[in-house]
Each structure stands twice: as structure tokens, then as C-alpha cells.
Amino acid sequence: MTEDILTLLKENVIQGRVTQDDEGFDEGMVGQPGVSELIEKALAQGINPENIVNKGLTAGMNIVGQKYEANEYYIPDMLASAEAVGVAMEILEPHLAKSGIKSKGKVIVATVKGDLHDIGKNIVSMLLRGAGYIVRDLGNDIDPQVIIAAVREEKPQFVGMSALLTSTMMHMKDTIEALTESGLRDKVKVIIGGAAVSEEFAQGIGADGYGADGFQAVRLVEALSTNVES
Ligand code: B1M
Questions:
Q1: pTM of the model
Q2: CB burial of residue 50 (10 Å; 0-12, 13-18, 19+)
């Protein structure tokens, strides 16, 4: 029974179905329970929230990632799945806290100053949440000093910045310099991403890593976590 619900959950993440009213990627699924109904059902049956996240949500998003890399899924499909996971995580959040599952760490995420592109950053935030991190999303058009203040106050292990414009990407460098000037640079790992930037750029500005997509961002944070105190 547990496995059935988790399998259904995984399939509905892949289908990008938030509720029973949604069509889904394959269509014709209206009326069948979506992710939100399945999460409620799983919780009512006492299924461990950690299994719900790992075997349902994250397992589903892993398949979505494979489909995206294989050009079988496009960005709207990925967004639908990411939204389903986001809704699921909102329902699960209080239960995760209650069940005593330790979060894997905290990540402050922002699109840099002058840049209003937030779709990619939102995907990264949702995937990180799905992978078990607490994400504080500062939004878009975020001044370096706002990031510094958030690091000081919230003491995250990671800062993640996104930039889509060649005219705004240098604010990533400004932010890293501001972290250094504030004596906070060695307290956080900095990862960056977005269409304007690259691995080479990340190295050039002294970031700790670059993620080409949301899944790479999660893998990067997981890899860097082994070197970070929580
Ligand atoms: Co604009 N825009 N845009 N735009 N826009 C681009 C980026 C552009 C490449 C289009 C083009 O000309 N071909 C171009 C930039 C050129 C350049 O700088 N070299 C451009 C421009 C010029 C502009 C304006 C200046 C246009 C104007 O007004 N004249 C203006 C600037 C506004 C501003 O920011 N100040 C502008 C405005 C907009 C809209 C508001 C209309 C809208 C944004 C809506 C929104 O985000 N809420 C928009 C859009 C939609 C785009 C395109 C078409 C799509 C961007 C997107 O959402 N991609 C874009 C062209 C393109 O990229 N094909 C374009 C989907 C998203 C999932 O991908 O964000 O790359 P992406 O995120 C990926 C990865 O990059 C990675 O993971 C994500 C998921 O896989 N990733 C990270 C992202 N952040 C990460 C962080 C990480 C790790 C990975 O770690 C922390």
C-alpha cells in the first residue's frame, strides 16, 4: 500500500499534476488524484515524510531531469513538475519539522541586482527544497548588501545567485567581494547559475561552483555539503 502511493506520487510529479483537476503531461488524467491529494492521503496513512520526499517527490523529479536532458520534456513540463513538488513541500513542511528530520542545510537564493529573470532561480529553489534544504528565496533584483544582511542574520551554509543578463552578471562578483569585505566569505559556499554565466566565469569571480541547470545545482550543493559545517 505504501509503495503504491509513493509510486503514484512519483508518477504524478512526472506528469506535473498538482491536483485531481489537472490534465497531466500525457493528458486524460483529470479526476485521478494529483500530488496534493496523494500527499494528504500518504500523511493520513502515516507514511514517513522522508520516504514521501525521497521515494515520491525526489524520485519523480529525477525522472523529469532525465526527460529534460533527453529533450523529451521542455521547460513548461519541467515547471509543471517543479510546481507540483513545490506545492507538495508546502503541505509537507510542518510534518517534516515534526518528524524530526534534520534539514540538510540552509541556502539563500537570489537573482542579482538589476535582473528580473526569476524562473530558473525558482526552479533551483524548488529542487533544493525537494532535496531537503531550507531555502530562503530573497527574490529578484537583489542588491549585494541585501544578500550580506541575509547571510549575517540567517547564517546559511550556501548562497546561490542567478543571472540571465550579461549586464547583471558582474553583480555576482560584487556580492562575493562584499562577502569578503564583511568577513563572511569563509562562512558560506557560493554557487552561481543562469544563462549569462559559465563554469569559467564562476572560477574567475571566486565562486565555489556553477550549476548549468537546477539538478546540477542540487548535485553541486550536495557535493559541497561534505566540506561545510552545518
Ligand atoms: Co529576458 N532576456 N529580458 N525576459 N529573457 C533573455 C535572458 C535574453 C537571452 C533574450 C534574448 O535576447 N535572446 C536576453 C539577455 C541577453 C544578454 O544579456 N546577453 C534578455 C533580455 C535582453 C531582456 C531585457 C533586457 C529585454 C528588454 O526589456 N529589452 C529585459 C531585462 C529585464 C531585467 O531583468 N532587468 C528582459 C525581460 C524579460 C521578461 C521579464 C519578459 C522575462 C522574464 C520573466 C521572469 O523571469 N519572471 C524574460 C524571459 C522569459 C527571457 C527568456 C526568453 C527566457 C529566460 C527563462 O526563464 N528561461 C531569455 C531567453 C532564453 O534564455 N532563451 C531572456 C528558462 C529558465 C528555466 O532558464 O533562467 O536559464 P534559466 O535557468 C536554468 C539554468 O540557467 C539554471 O537552472 C535553471 C533551470 O534549469 N540556473 C541556475 C538558473 N539560475 C541558477 C542558479 C544556480 C544554478 C543554476 O545556482 C544558484
A1: 0.80
A2: middle
